[in-house]
From TrEMBL:
Biased composition annotated in UniProt, kind: Basic and acidic residues: 253-269
Name of the molecule in the record: NADPH-dependent FMN reductase-like domain-containing protein
Sequence segments annotated as region (Disordered): 250-269
SUPFAM superfamilies, sorted: Flavoproteins
Domain NADPH-dependent FMN reductase-like: 55-194
Highest taxon in the source lineage: Bacteria
Gene Ontology terms for molecular function: oxidoreductase activity
One protein family per Pfam: FMN_red
Amino acid sequence: MRNKDCRFLFLSTFYDLQNRPNMELSTFQKELNDNNPFDFSALKAVFLNCTLKKSPENSHTAGLISMSEGIMRANGVATEVIRPVDHQIAFGVYPDMTEHGWDRDDWPAIQDKVMEADILILGSPIWLGEKFSIASLVIERLYGYSGKMNNKGQYAYYGKAGGCLITGNEDGIKHCAMNILYSLQHLGYVIPPQADAGWIGEAGPGPSYLDKNSGGPENDFTNRNTTFMTWNLMHLAQMLKQSGIPAYGNQRDAWDNRSNKDHPNPEYR
C-alpha cells in the first residue's frame, strides 16, 4: 500500500474511532457474547459507512454500525470502519482510476482493506427511497475488482461474506438492502440469512437514528435483526474461511480454455 494511501486511511479510521458512537449492547446481546462457544478470532470485518457526512461529523448510520461492530469485537473479530466520503475516490469501474486519466484515486487503499477482510458490511442512509450516492460509487469500485481471480481461479470475492445496514427517516430499508445485497452476491460475495438490518422513523421529516427520543437505539425489531445479521455473518465467514467455495464448475480459466466451444458467443454485425 502506498504511503499516502496509508495516511489517508489512518486519518479516516482515527476520526471515526474518536467520533463514532459506542452503542451499549443489551443484556441478552452481552449474554450471547459471553456464552459464545465459537472462535471467531481469525476473522476480519470491514464496515464501509456510505454516509455523506465527513469525519468527525456525527453519522446516524455509524450508530447502527457500532452495534454490529460491538458484537463482532466482543467475539474477537478484528474490525475497521471506513467512511469513503473522507477520501477522494474517482468514478469508474477499474481497480485504479489513475491509470485511466484521474490525477488521484484513494480507492485502491480501501480495496486492499476489503480484500484482507472476511466480512464486508455496507452501511447507507436512505435518500428518496434509494441508497446514498456514495454507496453506488462504492459498489461501482468494488465491481472494478471483481474480474480479478483468487488462488483457486475463482473470482476474487469468492469465500467472503457480505451484509448491509440501512438508516433513515423515510421508507426504503428493504429496497436499499435488496439492491446492495444483490450487487454483493453478483460480485461473488456469499450472503447469509437475514443479512440486512435497518431503522427508519416516521414517514416524512422527523428524528434520525441517534437523535434524542428517536426510539432508534431502543427499537427491538432493529436490534434483533442487527444481532441476527452480525452473528450470521460471523458464522458464515468462519465456515467459508475453513472450507471456502469448492473450486469446481466456477473457474474462469477452465471456462475460457475449454476444448469444446459448441456454444460460442454469437458474432454481431
